[in-house]
Amino acid sequence: MIVKVCENYAEMSRMAAEAIAVEMEKKKNFVLGLATGSTPVGTYGNLIEMNKQGRLDFSEVKTFNLDEYCGLYPSHDQSFNYFMYIKLFNYINIKNENVHVPFGMAADYDSWCKGYEDAIAKAGGLDLQLLGMGSNGHIGFNEPSDEFSDITHTVQLTESTIKDNSRFFECADDVPKSAVTMGIGTIMRARKIVMGENGANKAKGVKAMLEGPVTPRMPASYLQNHADVSVFLDKDAASLL
Ligand code: F6R
Fold first, then answer.
1. How far is the centre of ligand 1, averaged over its atoms, from the C-alpha of 95 (Å)?
2. Which helix (H) or strand (E) holds 165?
3. How far is C-alpha 109 from the geometric centre of its chain's CA atoms?
4. pLDDT for 160-175, tens place per residue?
C-alpha cells in the first residue's frame, strides 16, 4: 500500500486524479469504479480538466459507481446518479450507455444486484476503483458489521452514516435508510484502488484502516489485504498516524 500525505485538499485531489490518469492512459476501454460524497469532487475537477486539455479520453471508458440510496429515482437531486452527472459526466466525453450507477428503485433488488455484478464481469472487471471512507470506516455503503459482504447487495444505513449524510438533505429524516452497494469483495476484486481522505473527522478512521486489525467492524481495513492501493491523505486526515 502506498500512503502519501499531501499538503491540503487541493494537492490530495491533484494526486488522486494523477494516479487515475496514469492508469487510464494505458488502456482505451478502461473500466473505472467511481464514488460520490464530498471527497472526490476535487478529483473529478482535475479529471474534467485533463479531459478538456486532451490528455484523458473517456470515449471508450466504462464507469461503475459504488452505491445508490434505495427509494430515490436517478433524477432526484440527492441521488448519487444525479451527483455524478453534475460533478463529472456532464463535462467529459463519456457515452451515456457506458455509465452505470446502481438503481435505487429496483422491484427485485436481489436480481438487480446480480445483474450489476454480471455487468462488471462482462466489462472485464474494474481496472481501478476510486474510494472515500465514511467516518465510521465504511467503503461504498458497506457499514461496520459482523460479516464480510462479498457482492453487490442492499444494506441498512447506520445512524452515524445517516447523520453524516444529512448535510446534503433538509433534515436527517429525509435521508434514505437503506442503499444498494458494491460488496467488499466487488471492491477488492478491482485491480487497483485509489483512495482520498481529508479532514480531521477522518483521522481516527484512517488510523484504524491502516494500522488496526482487518475486521468487518472497520470495512476499510480490508484494503490492507489488497495488492495495489494508493491512499492520498491531507495533513488533518493523517494527523493520528
Ligand atoms: C460514496 C461512498 C461513501 C463515501 C463516504 C465518504 O459513493 O461510497 O463510502 O465515499 O461516505 O463520504 P465523504 O467523501 O462525503 O466524506
1. 25
2. helix 159-165
3. 20
4. 999 999 999 999 999 9
Contacts 24+ apart (CB under 8 A), 118-122: 119/64, 120/31, 120/64, 120/186
The three grid cell numbers given for residue 70, joined into one nine-digit string: 434505495
Name residue 73's amino acid.
Y
**Closest Cα to atom 10, ligand 1: which residue?**
132
Residues noted as catalytic: 67, 136, 138, 143
- State which ligand 1 atom lies nearest to the alpha carbon of 65: 7
Q: How far apart are CA 70 and CA 155, in angstroms?
A: 9
pTM exceeds 0.85 for this model? yes
pLDDT in tens, 124-181: 999 999 999 999 999 999 999 999 899 999 999 999 999 999 999 999 999 999 999 9
**Close Cβ partners of 93 (under 8 Å, ≥ 6 residues apart):** 51, 57, 58, 59
35 alpha carbon to ligand 1 midpoint, in Å?
Answer: 7
